[in-house]
Amino acid sequence: MQIFHPALCATLVALHFLATPATADDLPPGMTAAGLRSGWQTATGSHMSALHVQLAGGWKTYWRAPGEAGVPPQFDWAGSDNVASVAVHWPRPQVFETNGMRTVGYRHEMILPLEITPADPTRPVRLSASVEMGICDHICVPVLLDLAAEITGPGAPDPIIAAALKARPEPHPGAARCTLAPIADGMHVRAEIDLPPMGVGEVALIELRGRPVWVSDPVTHRRGGRLISEADMVPDSASPFAVNPDDLVITILGEGGQAIEISGCPG
């Protein structure tokens, strides 16, 4: 469950376009360009493309775990042809503080690399997707993008996509231990992570892989070389629920662009 405050919602805008960016006349207020970057074929036979959304000054959009009051992009690949799977790669996000509330996302533009695995590598790929996302400035606008692109040939390396891939949080094998406890409307998570300090303003982001749940803004502090972060998880049912510790993902953002990701948090 993700919060998108109804008082801030304007209208749902549906856009239909190919890999060529949409013109400004086709876009909602706050969005200046949107499209799919053509990308290249990888050594494994997959194809690396990207969703590229550009925003007007002051506007932002959200990361996969958007914070207390945001809407993460949601993807539907139904209608694609010769597509076995699509993996979305997420660059390091920014943290925003607005009216005492923390959200997580991207300002000015969002570049999400898309790794497309064809069902048959010898045939062209037609990628068809509906992307639901929110963009915000003083108001928030929910947007529905309908995208389609024909992907053929080896393509060519794209430095913009390559930079977004390089900006992903580094996988971190460090020791993380979690304690889970039921609360009235969900589960409380306490994570203890053995991690050297990452500078001023460390931020811990806690999410649950594979299930949409609302997550409170984590409360984070340090005890020397140990980072401790706590948050509440509330599902749509607003009741305690089973959590597999292997599905917990913790991202730590530090000073100077540092970012690490810990997958799984055993008890």
UniProtKB/TrEMBL annotation:
UniProt keyword list: Signal
InterPro entries in alphabetical order: DsbDN
Superkingdom in the source lineage: Bacteria
Pfam family, one: DsbD_N
UniProt signal peptide: 1-24
Domain Thiol:disulfide interchange protein DsbD N-terminal intervals: 43-143
Protein name: Thiol:disulfide interchange protein DsbD N-terminal domain-containing protein
